[in-house]
Amino acid sequence: MWEVVVDSNKCTGAQQCVDNCPTGVYETKDGKAVPTHADECIGCRTCMEVGPTGACQVTEID
User: Fold this and answer.
1) pLDDT band for position 62 (50/70/90)?
2) How many angstroms separate the CA atoms of 57 and 48, rounded?
3) pLDDT at 47 over 90
4) Structure confidence at residue 15 (pLDDT)
5) Distance between CA atoms of residues 32 and 11, nearest Å
């Protein structure tokens, strides 16, 4: 299982995570990325790689 968190203070609304997430975890709300489908996360960490500010964090949890 994966925990998906977006730091809204770092998020610029560039939508890189929204556009590149293979499972559609993120949506944009009020100009910021929000993990609305975090239960769909497969832990690929693409969002962390493509995000320009490091706002997205994906952590494996038990």
Assistant:
1) confident
2) 6
3) yes
4) 96
5) 6
* Residue range(s) defining the domain that contains residue 47: 2-60
How many domains are contained in the chain?
Answer: 1
CATH number of 36's domain: 3.30.70.20
Burial 21-46 (b: 16+ CB within 10 A, else e): beeebbebeeebbbbeebeebeeeeb
Q: Which two tokens stand for residue 5?
A: 């968190």
Tokens of 9: 């203070």
Q: What is the pTM of this model?
A: 0.92
> Number of helices and strands (H, E) in the chain?
2, 4
Specify the pairing of strand 2-6 against strand 56-60. Answer: antiparallel
Contact between 33 and 11 under an 8 Å Cβ cutoff? The reply is yes
